[in-house]
Write a structure and sequence with these properties.
Helix content is about 45%, strand content about 15%. The protein has a single domain (about 1-235), classed as L-fuculose-1-phosphate Aldolase (3-Layer(aba) Sandwich). It is α+β, with helices and mostly antiparallel strands and about 240 residues long. About 40% of the residues are buried. An eight-stranded mixed beta sheet has the order 4-3-2-1-5-8-7-6, sandwiched between helices. The radius of gyration is 17 Å and the shape is globular.
């Protein structure tokens, strides 16, 4: 179990480092969290005040779902407890919860009624798996707001919060990060196509649904994606795993 926890720390730190390289971080805000192996009530989360580009596995804090730090040095921004903890509590699919203000996905969240459309084959995996919160309540500063967002997320994998940004969940941090990555790529291309002011070419629902149903395929691929990320970090920034 000790090795499983250390591996979880390394995987989460790797995703934070890679997200920083991709420009997903905004200031020192936002969080990636991951339930500890073997636990449904304790989670790892990045501490307040660190750039993701400097986070190490040993910097990650262990917290409970009631807002207490139980292991590690540092503090956690209130939104990690008010947003992440309720989603971990309410969704059995949410072993990993990733929230950040990725540029293109957030941009789509800022457009009235905009949705991720079935127009890009790389995005068919999201068909029927995205929930939309159309009623922005400001910052997530109370557990009640997290409960509200968790209820809207339901059994979906992605929550698009209007006027805010995305939350992506997964059974592993690899699965969640792969979804976050492709969601951002798909939103970028959709917004580029929308800028032409020409109609988007939609595909038949059955075509999009066919790939959306291949969850196991995408989750297997996500492990290869994370393994590649760690190989690069092992060469270029090995301190992430310390």
């Amino acid at each position: 179990m000790k090795n499983d926890i250390q591996n979880a720390r390394i995987d989460l730190a790797a995703c934070l480092r890679w997200a920083a390289r991709l420009g997903y971080q905004q200031g020192v805000c936002n969080h990636f969290s991951l339930l500890l192996p073997g636990s449904d009530s304790l989670f790892l989360v990045n501490p307040e005040g660190l750039f993701w580009s400097e986070v190490r596995a040993s910097d990650l804090l262990v917290c409970d779902l009631d807002g207490h730090i139980v292991e590690g040095q540092g503090t956690v921004e209130i939104t990690a407890f008010c947003l992440h903890a309720p989603i971990h509590r309410h969704s059995k699919k949410a072993r990993a919860v990733l929230h950040c203000h990725t540029p293109y996905t957030t941009a789509l969240c800022l457009i009235e009624n905009a949705k991720v459309e079935p127009v890009n084959v790389a995005g068919f995996q999201f068909y029927g798996h995205i929930a939309y919160d159309e009623d922005c309540q400001g910052g997530a500063l109370s557990p009640a707001e997290g409960d509200r967002e968790a209820a809207i997320l339901g059994d979906k994998n992605v929550l698009m919060m209007r006027n805010h940004g995305p939350i992506v969940i997964g059974p592993t941090v690899a699965a969640a990060f792969d979804r976050l990555y492709y969601l951002e790529e798909v939103c970028q291309r959709q917004l580029l196509a929308m800028s032409s002011h020409r109609p988007l070419k939609q595909v038949a629902p059955a075509i999009a649904q066919g790939l959306a149903d291949e969850v196991a395929l995408f989750e297997t691929y996500s492990e290869k994606h994370l393994a590649a990320i760690k190989r690069v970090l092992d060469r270029e920034a090995p301190d992430y795993a310390r």
